[in-house]
């Protein structure tokens, strides 16, 4: 009777493992939304816990069969053979479910990381757009133009590391068929805005540089003219002080 019960327990254990494999490992999942992916991660976590909890039952079966084998070697030997098959299948099931759970957790982490990088770069684009708009209505003063140019250039020096991460993370998920429609849409919108604002910012940078160069040249010319006028004023003043007749002066002084 003991042997019959143990044989029945082994059969039930094998049946449970077959069902678990069908339910957790043989489904063809498609993750088209973050909610579906998150639910799949949670389901695989529960599956891993469920499978690992059966470890106690497997150990009890193993101990009982060993004990039976010492008392009834013939029955115990047959059950030991069946037990080895169950143990091998159980270990394989554990490994496969652990592997799938780890993979899904990595995929979810990849998605969250992608969102974080997109948030960072979107904040930078917002800042860039604000700086570009600020250059559109500047006072006609050298300092104001110079400050606006330096401010814009400081934003444009933003490193490209985050965009590289966005491209690589997005491509990894898309290649795996994970959230491919959503990610493609997000990347397309981000890249379009990035290209538009970058070109606009660089164009405005060139305009400000040219404007600044013109203002500096004009300022220099005004300084030279002011110096020449000052020199002429001092020369004329000395002529008047010395009561020199106008016709005695050089032609340019007259």
TrEMBL record:
* Keywords for this protein: Coiled coil
Q: Which domain of life is it from?
A: Eukaryota
| Alphabetical list of SMART domains matching this protein | SPEC
Query: Keyword Cell wall biogenesis/degradation: yes or no?
Result: no
Coiled-coil region list:
3-64
Name this protein carries in UniProt: UTRO protein
Instruction: List the source organism.
Output: Menura novaehollandiae
